[in-house]
Amino acid sequence: MKREYKCSCRDVDPDHFIENEEVIKLLETKENYKFNQGDYLRLYNCVHCGACGTHYERFLLKQKFLKDGNKIEGLKEQIEVLKKYGTPFKLNKSRIKAIDGINLKSKTLLYFGCFTTVKTPKYGENIAKYLLSKNVDFNVLEKEICCGYPILCTGELNTYNILIERNKTLFIEMGFEKIITVCPSCYMVFKKHYQELGIKIEYFTEYLTPRVRKNKGNLIIQHACPLKYIEFLGIEEELKQIYEDSGYNVLPIPHNCCGGGVGHQLRTDISEMIAIKRMKEFKDNEDINSETADSKSYITTYCPDAYWILKFFGKKQRSKHKLVDMGELLIE
Questions:
Q1: Where are the domains of the chain?
Q2: At residue 307, does pLDDT exceed 50?
Q3: Are 149 and 189 a contacting pair, CB within 8 Å?
Q4: For residues 95-113, b (16+ Cβ closer than 10 Å) or e, as one string?
Q5: pLDDT digits (tens, 9 = 90+) for 241-251
Q6: What is the value of pTM for the model shown?
Q7: Measured between alpha carbons, how far is 119 from 129 in angstroms, rounded to an integer?
Q8: From the CB of residue 54, how many other CB atoms can be counted at a distance below 10 Å?
Q9: At residue 180, what are phi and psi to the nearest 5 degrees?
Q10: Class of residue 283 by CB neighbours under 10 A (exposed 0-12, middle 13-18, buried 19+)
Q11: Fewest Cβ atoms nearer than 10 Å: which of 1, 32, 255, 267?
């Protein structure tokens, strides 16, 4: 738990935000009360960015909300789809195109994740191409099973555990020794559940290296909140160094959540307010960009959900920053 932190959920919806102290108190006294349906707005205000340090505890409160007999609109249908199809996207097959050079016998799996395969396939394709350019040997699945994080964020634990076991069986059968993920949610889930199988879990950013031939341009990096705040403390400076060594002028814009991830799965009103707020912060910095010597201005991220937010809401705000994935900026 952090005493001082910046929280975009609190900024856009302060009336429904639960402070850390209350989160802890609610868990300590959970046998003495029951949540009612009216508690939905405040319990699901959180997009689980991790900035507050109580993201896990907030999961537990959501589990109690459901255990106390409350409902989430569409949850029953979502559970049925996940159990039947192994993905939240019932009518959408993977849109990632076949990529030449993949080793179907490799014991390293490149795992794209549900959101990447359907909503941001180009992002996933470019990461795969970058890894191949670095001679990284990997396999891919024709059909992935959801990591379970989207349903965990609702508080529904049983379906989450079913998906965990399905993936565990699949990974053992395929004999995978390493999994490289391109989604922060998948990384967190896999690290928690599959390292015990002897499978090494990595994130694709661990393979990024500076360009030999320098490039130019201003660059904004929208960081992946769960990795920045939870899994990879210091990743902000590490990536900044890689891109500066590649010739880019990394703009010193303070980090804030973009509203992606859990945000657009549940309380979409919170997600959209945060996204608009973040896009405005980028737009306010366009004046700074115009004062620098370089004319090109890029924006990038290492999270597929953030990539979608930047693309969709960037267009709405008529952003001048060109959205480019991280590998494309570094590939020779």
A1: 8-67, 75-207, 218-330
A2: yes
A3: yes
A4: ebeeeeeeeeebebbbbbb
A5: 999 999 999 99
A6: 0.93
A7: 18
A8: 24
A9: -105, 125
A10: middle
A11: 32
